[in-house]
Design brief:
- The chain is an alpha/beta fold and about 525 residues long.
- The protein has three domains: about 150 residues, Thiamin diphosphate (ThDP)-binding fold, Pyr/PP domains (Rossmann fold); about 150 residues, Rossmann fold, CATH 3.40.50; about 180 residues, Thiamin diphosphate (ThDP)-binding fold, Pyr/PP domains (Rossmann fold), CATH 3.40.50.
- About 35% of the residues lie in helices and about 15% in strands.
- Helix 10 runs parallel beside helix 12.
- The longest helix has 15 residues.
- It is globular and about 70 Å long.
- The two termini are about 40 Å apart.
- The C terminus is likely disordered.
- InterPro entries: DHS-like_NAD/FAD-binding_dom, THDP-binding, Thiamin_PyroP_enz_cen_dom, Thiamin_PyroP_enz_TPP-bd_dom, TPP_enz, TPP_enzyme_TPP-bd.
- Pfam families: TPP_enzyme_C, TPP_enzyme_M, TPP_enzyme_N.
- Keywords: Thiamine pyrophosphate.
Amino acid sequence: MGAVPEQWADSVSDKSGAPVFGLAGSSNFRFLARYRELGGDFVPVQHEAGAVAMAAGWAEAADRVGVASVHQGPGFTNTLTALVDAHRARIPVIVVTGHDLDSMSHQHVDTEGLCDRLGVAYLVPDLISDDVISETMDQAAVNRCPVVLLPPRQISLRSAFTLDYSEELANEIPNNVICQIEGARRIAIVAGRGAVRSGALHRIASLADQLGALLVTSAAAHGAFADNPRYAGSIGGFATEATTEAMRTCDTVIAFGASLDRWSTAGGRIFGESAHVVRVDPWTLREDPVIFGVRMDAGKFAEELAAIVPARARGSWALDAASAGRAPRALGTPALGLDPRQVLRRLDQLIPSHRRIVLDSGHFIALAAMYLTTIDGPHVHFGQDFQSVGLGLAKAIGAALTNDGRITVCVLGDGGAGMSIMELATAVELRIPLLVVLINDAAYGAEVHDFAPTGVDVSVAQFTLKNWADIAKVLGAEAKTVRELSDLDAIGSWLDNPAGPFLLDCQVDPTIDATTVMTDEGVAEWSCAE
């Protein structure tokens, strides 16, 4: 058995001081025991996917490298969905695990081969060195990616790092981009998750003011400019009709740290037919016949452009468009229960504005991104990078452990809860202040609404209505079943002193189709990218 070296715990303690999220097995037991002996904060989880998801949630919220540790073989394979999700979200996490090199062992698995096939970086050092942890964490931070760290195998060093900085970044803005922006009539600026991570939001907002531009964000940067009068909200499927129409009138779009994939652009429909689109990102840019890519840091691009392009008359069109884009959305009348939009809008009023919102994947999650807001910066963790339900609760627990004074709100569906509810026991044990909003329609709602019109039997995606509040109480959490809006007021006293998790089981109308709420076409434009 290739056990995790015990002395690596000393290095993790010295290097990061971060909590280690994990589940102990024979291959990592001594490592975790040593870390706790050193006074390190070990957070025991219920499932290995939860370890990686919690570490990712913590890393995203703390803007540091997260650490997870799991057992070899089946322990590692249990992490794969969360690992791929972190990889696609560009979240720096190291996963410390063992590996059994005996191919006849029941727990043997080709860990390196799995990482290769998933595109996930890994490292197998040739020595038990104090520098290994430091080097691995540095690699994860620089490349913004998870790295799987395996014990030495007494063979030469083997590693696989996916380096996106294989080409040098641009030193200056191309002339054709400058000329296009100087001649533009209407400019829209899109900020994505990359802009948030680069710390460039203030410079981007100043540039928008100088250019008289409209400000919008991808879903992953939702709320980044919430208090800015030029901000019209998110683009893609979450956009209001007014925001989408305003975007279509723009002849120039500058996107900072946003992938502009088919989700965030609503299949390209947010751009006018003659629009010129520039995407600014330091990472490798995909080839696109419509989008011109510039490999440059967002802040550097914004500063240089502001120094080159003169300020223009600040016409009212962008301010008017932003105001229209932020107008309250109309609500329908539910037939069989609560309208999730009304639930989320009421919670938006009840929960203090100093909040963090963590979204699982699932049918109603898009509505949460539309109706729950943050007004003091981008603190929305959007769980669509792998479009996998069931990771959001663990991410929220990790994010809440940053202890930055924010109320952490996790929104998930009953499908995701079925996969992850046991992680609530971790939040109970550690008395983590976490508000869990469970949107309960007794179904995998997306599948029901996608396939019901075709005449297919959708009962395979429907469940018996469960009382998740009772389940949460058994695990030791406070909880309330919500059947009418006034039931939401139960969180009032908890908000005064949140000494552990509180779950709201919101039993909503299962006939409401979130996809048709979002778009006229009835097609969900889930933004799973930057």
